[in-house]
Amino acid sequence: WHISKLKMSVRDEAMYTGKVMLAPMVRVCTLPMRLLALDYGADLVYCEEIVDRKILMCQKYDNELLGTTDFILSDGTVVFRTAPREKEKLIFQIGTCDAKRALAAAKKIQDFVAGVDINMGCPKEFSVKGGMGAALITQPEKVREILTLLVKELSVPVTCKIRCLPSLEKTLELVKIIESTGVSAVGVHGRTKDERSRNPNRDEFIQAVAKAVKIPVIANGGSMDIKTLADMERFRERTGACSVMVARAAEWNCSVFRKQGPLSFLDVIKSYLRYAFQYDNNEMNTKYCVLQIIHDKMTELSEADKCLAAKSLEEFADIWDMRSEYIKILAQRKERQDELSQKHAD
Ligand code: FNR
């Protein structure tokens, strides 16, 4: 048992070392954005935070039509959709305040993902009042309990993503506890629960954490200075971390991961929409993501108002001159539907 755990820990360390990652973002990190980030060169992609209770309420559904595995609520809402192509690269982030429930949620999805991450950074009232997200970093015993159970019981690597505590000393105490649970890496966003994104990132806290622990540290919070892969590498060097995870820079232009340099926002929107069409992504989610990409061009872009008004994927196709591609995808889906009906009738 010890040898197999040791082998696993070597494997897991490599998985989180020298990597660039799409950081977890609610609403942004659904399947189309994750696949796009992988196309552009991200090594690992996080899903949006999903609360343990929610995934536990879902039914698993093999979606043969789209080639995905879906986790669906009884009203048909798709809570989590994943494609086989991302399995080895996908980190499933859980919102939790309870070790047993987190374990049950993680067990439900672990066969479809490469790793499980616990959100210990979300400062939103919804999370903190429920004892989740950033509420956890002031409860080291709870942190220990959740991570220890998950590390022991899951077959995939376990990590967590924290914010800093106001004092460096307390932050280091916390990460030492985290390290002692046997997690494979720790993500550190260099801001405290009460600091907003306009506050400078505490790169020096991340640096101190990276020095204090042996597990890989994933630096986060640097998006304001990140426009290219080279900027990510500078952020990594500055913080002395093993890897970098990027949220807003990727939300605004996901091609930030490209070795050859980022593409124009128009290219990114079109590639994003192709995946949204292909995987029948929810139209409100699609709209949100497209609006994030054009966020700083809202006033100058003639398409912006149309995007705000759009209510269907078809309308998005029209705005960006993609009708023929959209129709082709629908025709292929229809063909597949007919094949499946035939197969099930036989
Ligand atoms: C986030 N963030 C976040 N963090 C997390 O652990 N789970 C989540 O679901 C989310 N959701 C989320 C949504 C959106 C729209 C944003 C902008 C951010 C925080 C995010 O992962 C990251 O820690 C911060 O944005 C700081 O990193 P960047 O943006 O400077 O790279």
Automatic annotation (TrEMBL):
Whole-protein residues included: 43 to 388 of 550
Top-rank taxon: Eukaryota
Identification of the protein by name: tRNA-dihydrouridine(20) synthase [NAD(P)+]-like
Keywords assigned: Flavoprotein, FMN, Oxidoreductase, RNA-binding, tRNA processing
Gene name as annotated: LOC101858954
Lineage: Eukaryota, Metazoa, Spiralia, Lophotrochozoa, Mollusca
Cofactor entry: FMN
